[in-house]
């Protein structure tokens, strides 16, 4: 994909991230209902030193998995708008998020940011913070070492499993 198209997708994300039709909010009503149907909201209280609450909206499979992979690896940065606009329609989730003082993205390495052109978590976090009027900070959690990607971890697990089978 050329750089100009890439910039346009980030600056003018005016199409539904699910069906591709022109839509100002990047999520048409039909696809909103489709996503709502796939929603499996889980709010889990966690008691450890790093986390107190975990909110999960979808199961990582089917259409959701495809869209997350497109978002991360296929230059479809505009999908952040689709995800954020879906989240903003969920009052329960918005109420939970508004309890927090700051929203921070999960950092990615500079190498990955350079290859992808954006931090997928940061686009969502920044937009969500702006729309919910919460402070946004990128300088609190910094990535200091490169770890394996999810697909590299999966490959390693599969290889180990195979060795055990032999
Ligand atoms: Zn749509």
Explain what the structure shows:
The mean pLDDT is 86. This protein has helices spanning 3-11, 29-38, 62-73, 79-88, 91-98, 110-116, 120-132, 150-165, and strands spanning 42-45, 53-56, 102-103, 135-136. The chain is mainly α and 166 residues long. The protein has a two-stranded antiparallel sheet with strand order 1-2. Strands 3-4 form a two-stranded parallel ribbon. The longest helix has 16 residues, at 150-165. It binds zinc ion. Zinc ion binds at residues 16, 18-19, 21, 28, 30-31.
The major β-sheet equals: 2 strands, antiparallel
Tell how many strands the DSSP assignment holds. Answer: 4
Shape: globular
Q: Tally the helices.
A: 8
Question: How much of the residues is beta strand, in percent?
Answer: 5-15%
* H/E element sequence: HHEEHHHEHHEH
Structural class: mainly alpha
Helix content: 40-55%
Rg over C-alpha atoms, rounded to the nearest angstrom = 17 Å
Short description:
This protein is mainly alpha-helical and 166 residues long. It has helices at residues 3-11, 29-38, 62-73, 79-88, 91-98, 110-116, 120-132, 150-165, and strands at residues 42-45, 53-56, 102-103, 135-136.
List keywords for this structure.
single chain; 166 residues; mainly alpha; two-stranded antiparallel ribbon; two-stranded parallel ribbon; 8 helices; 4 strands; binds zinc ion
Topology of this protein?
Blueprint: H1 3-11, H2 29-38, E1 42-45, E2 53-56, H3 62-73, H4 79-88, H5 91-98, E3 102-103, H6 110-116, H7 120-132, E4 135-136, H8 150-165
Parallel strand pairs: 3-4
Antiparallel strand pairs: 1-2
Bound molecules: zinc ion (ZN).
Zinc ion (ZN) is lined by residues 16, 18-19, 21, 28, 30-31.
């Amino acid at each position: 994909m050329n750089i100009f198209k890439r910039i346009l997708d980030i600056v003018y994300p005016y199409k539904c991230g699910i069906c591709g039709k022109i839509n100002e909010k990047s999520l048409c009503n039909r696809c909103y209902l489709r996503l709502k149907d796939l929603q499996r909201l889980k709010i889990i209280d966690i008691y450890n030193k790093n986390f107190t609450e975990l909110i999960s909206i979808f199961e990582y499979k089917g259409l959701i998995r495809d869209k997350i992979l497109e978002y991360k690896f296929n230059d479809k940065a505009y999908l952040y708008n689709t995800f954020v606009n879906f989240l903003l329609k969920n009052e329960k989730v918005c109420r939970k998020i508004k309890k927090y003082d700051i929203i921070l993205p999960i950092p990615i390495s500079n190498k990955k940011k350079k290859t992808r052109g954006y931090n997928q978590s940061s686009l969502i976090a920044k937009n969500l913070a702006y729309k919910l009027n919460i402070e946004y900070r990128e300088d609190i959690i910094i990535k200091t070492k490169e770890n394996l990607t999810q697909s590299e971890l999966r490959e390693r697990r599969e290889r180990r499993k195979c060795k055990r089978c032999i």
